[in-house]
Amino acid sequence: MGFNRKDLLGIRDLEVSEIEHILELAQSLKEINMRAIKKVPTLRGKTVIHLFYEPSTRTRTSFDIAAKRLSADTYSIAGSTSSMVKGETLLDTLKNLEAMRPDVFVVRHSASGAPHMLARNTEASVINAGDGMHEHPSQALLDMLTIIEHKKRLDGLKVVIVGDIFHSRVARSNIWGLTKMGAKVTVCGPTTLIPPKIELMGAQVGYKLDECIADADVIMVLRLQKERQQQMLLPSLREYSTYFGINPQKLTKARPDVLIMHPGPINRGVEISPEVADGPYSVILDQVTNGVAVRMALLYLLAQR
Amino acid sequence: MKSDENSGAFIFRNGRVLDPSREFDRVADVLVLDGRIAEVNAGLDLGSDISARVRAIDASGKWIVPGLIDMHVHLREPGEEYKETIASGTAAAVAGGFTGVACMPNTHPVNDCAAITQFILERAKYHGSCRVFPVAAISRNLEGNNLAEYGELRDAGAVAVSDDGRPVTNALLMRRALEYAQTFDLLVIAHSEDPSLSGGGLMNEGEVSTRLGLRGIPNAAEEVMIARDLLLAELTGGRLHIAHVSTAGSVELIRAAKARGLSVTAETAPHYFTLTDDLISGFDPVYKVNPPIRSSRDIAAIKQGLADGTLDVIASDHAPHSVVEKDLEFEFAANGMIGLESSLPLILELVREGVLSPLQAIAKMSSNPASILKIPFGTLRSGAPADITVIDPDVEYVLDVNRFRSKSRNCPFHGRPARGRAIMTLVGGEVAFSE
């Protein structure tokens, strides 16, 4: 048991024992966040650089708080979407930053695989904080932690992920993680937003929301970006909301103890109604709280290497 | 090319002579005099005065084949000389066994006028190691709006027209190109891709693209355009050649068109019968190419198409890029891989697999491209220019980009164990490459 990797790039790479180890560590670290003085000296003298090439509020703040509560020194660098725009390539940026001897890079990038390229080219650890449509491992880990807190297990649960699966790194990481941990995952959305051969990743596919959520233990609602209309993927947000938006009326078909999750940011009234987002089934803010604990665990495991 | 009094005079003894232009596959001697093939026969008896002036080469265990022709390469000159030049590209060609290459027009400026065609031929004459056959643009500046001046281009030396790298999206322009090219007996080479279907795509669409979160390019993006162009070739009677076929469905469409009697030919590249899209799992841009490397099912269909003659030609689509274009996020990296120095051993893999006979394999790299381009090469007939490639089919080695003559290093086959390569390349009776 343990975790001996240099990088955390995706959930697909992880063994079940590694996921369990991270989640157990996160559970024990969570307590630090409840103290009056929310700081331990564990990562004193370690340097964490947040390299965010895509806008992010929640994930970046969460990683930053996690690092600071462990006493690491943190620095944030925000880039434009393409490193080329600035005239410096991503690898050149990396080499310059590496010359300052950081211990961990936390990387968010719009291009799938960008953290992998960085990881191959640096001695420091790389944490993927979301790459394109590929993976968002810390999100899946915090989602799993949140489910375990409420359901006491993952094995045997039925989880439905609803919405824009095609563009979602959250969906991909959760499919890998949840199926590894024994949950049954169904993805549900309009056919244009379900990527081809997704079933080969281990998820079932459904197009009828009421059937998909009928016996679900967890419903993960994904953000629907408004640009999808222009890309000929949807006729209107209105129609999307009618058939796939989660509202109290649709939830009458679900189990009484169903959990509603959302990685944020939410579009109230599009993929989720305010009554549901703020309602009794919602654990959306628990997810955010757990995000800090999970990221503390990841930083601890990688920076202690 | 240097010359001395003994230039262009060779006798290759006891090689396996493979001349697909006349279905010849026998151990024989090949006599070259004055830069031309003089005679091919077993046990050639030379008079003493000829013996005195020819260089005798023992070719036993080797293949003697018509000089190989790669009908789809990018030499990058003019405009991107940091990636490749006519000098470096043709040096790579002869090292790979090629005595002739057809170079695509997407240079800077574009080869869409006689002056650029002449420039390329001039550079090739003074700095090139092999023959260069310029392919001119279908449309002015590759913009897909107006026809280029095919008459002047042909007279300057262009052998075909193509907007390679970009599809001709306007069906009327493609119709006119197929019509107008007939006036000058020019081949039209189609880069078949519907950009509205492939737009934003980075790799083959399927299981792997879904897993990696990289936008996919469906097989249909290629097949839709091939279907259109086959119908336009039927309508116009134009000579159509489909470049870099990558999908099973494309092979089907071309096979059916040939069965209907259409004058259409097609090529594929070694990466389309060797590499599958799961290689992209590490996000290495060396595997990024357009059309993309596909699935094992497509590979099987491409091999079948090569075996049954649906695919006439194997060309490398040699596309040099420097680290400036390739050492980037997969999404931002350029499409393309170099192939001149890895093509032949990969094609020999097909021979060992039993997909192609040696004669078929050589035909797809010599006599077929020559007849499609209507150029007087790709044959060992007496009187033909002595463009000859000597192949050691058994030598084992590891492909190493650091030993390549190309200026670029974007080769996905680096480190691959290989068997067989060119050991001597003769262009017009002159040694252009020798190991």
Description:
- Chain A has 11 helices and 9 strands.
- Chain A has helices spanning 16-29, 58-69, 90-98, 114-120, 137-151, 169-180, 209-213, 237-244, 248-251, 274-277, 284-303; strands spanning 47-52, 73-78, 104-109, 125-131, 158-162, 184-188, 204-206, 218-221, 259-261.
- In chain A, 48% of the residues are buried.
- Chain B is of the alpha/beta class and 435 residues long.
- Chain B folds into 2 domains: 9-64 and 384-404 and 416-434, Urease, subunit C, domain 1; 67-373, TIM Barrel, CATH 3.20.20.140.
- Chain B is 31% helix and 23% strand.
- In chain B, α2 (86-95) links the parallel β6 and β7.
- In chain B, α3 (114-127) runs parallel beside α4 and α9 runs parallel beside α11 (296-307).
- The longest helix of chain B is centred in the middle third of the chain and has 18 residues, at 219-236.
- The two termini of chain B are 18 Å apart.
- Chain A binds chain B through residues 12, 82-84, 89-91, 109-114, 116-117, 131-135, 169, 172, 195-198, 200-201, and chain B through 205-207, 209-216, 282-283, 327-332.
